[in-house]
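wait is this the right file?? whatever heres the structure
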């Protein structure tokens, strides 16, 4: 089964671009800085000990995680919001929860989603009656897709922005926990920028039956993180 994804190459307007930058800013008050998405476990277990290994880890998570899960799902959810299709939004939101393999990963998705909902409510930007409804326990990707739709961000740019925010957060985690120097973080940014574009290209071409992350190492590390003795991050 394939889901049609359209309008991926639409030009982005100035207000849409600023709205996207607002959504992906590290200053967005939703607490994303508190989560490492399993990366802290990789440091603790010494799976990642230097800049080169971090680059390999991030590329692996991007290829087998975001490219197969969050990014194509984001496109489907934004399309469903554009069509005011609450049932499809709810189905994909439930699908996303089902792919989270540990309590921490589920908790992160739900808490970030709830934090973004609270922020949008304070800005009077939640869906209205004609827009469709937020599902119970909307995940972060689901709410992000709504906000991108509301800001009239083209699908391709929505995915690029989401991937960029993920990369920035992961490098910020590494700077705090490895530690990784800021110059090294910029080297990794330069290394991985083309990978983000390739990930978006691939994600937009996947059919529904090709979706689903393949990250057994991250899942194992995340499970071990739940009982890790010393932690800086919540996941």
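ok assuming it is, sequence goes like this
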């Amino acid at each position: 089964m394939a889901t049609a994804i359209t309008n991926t190459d639409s030009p982005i307007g100035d207000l849409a671009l600023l709205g996207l930058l607002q959504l992906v800013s590290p200053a967005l008050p939703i607490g994303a800085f508190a989560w490492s998405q399993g990366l802290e476990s990789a440091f603790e277990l010494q799976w990642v000990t230097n800049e080169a290994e971090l680059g390999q880890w991030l590329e692996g998570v991007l290829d087998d995680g975001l490219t197969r899960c969050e990014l194509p799902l984001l496109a489907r959810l934004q399309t469903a919001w554009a069509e005011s299709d609450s049932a499809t939004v709810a189905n994909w939101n439930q699908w996303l929860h089902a792919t989270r393999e540990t309590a921490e990963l589920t908790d992160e998705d739900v808490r970030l989603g709830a934090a973004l909902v609270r922020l949008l409510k304070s800005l009077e930007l939640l869906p209205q009656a004609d827009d469709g409804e937020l599902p119970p326990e909307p995940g972060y990707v689901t709410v992000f897709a709504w906000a991108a739709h509301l800001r009239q961000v083209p699908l391709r740019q929505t995915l690029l922005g989401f991937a960029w925010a993920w990369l920035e957060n992961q490098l910020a985690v590494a700077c705090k926990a490895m530690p990784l120097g800021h110059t090294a973080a910029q080297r990794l940014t330069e290394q991985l920028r083309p990978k983000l574009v390739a990930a978006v290209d691939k994600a937009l071409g996947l059919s529904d039956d090709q979706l689903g992350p393949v990250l057994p190492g991250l899942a194992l590390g995340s499970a071990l993180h739940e009982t890790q003795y010393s932690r800086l991050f919540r996941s």
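Residues 81 and 146 are 6 Å apart (CA to CA). so i think its the right one actually
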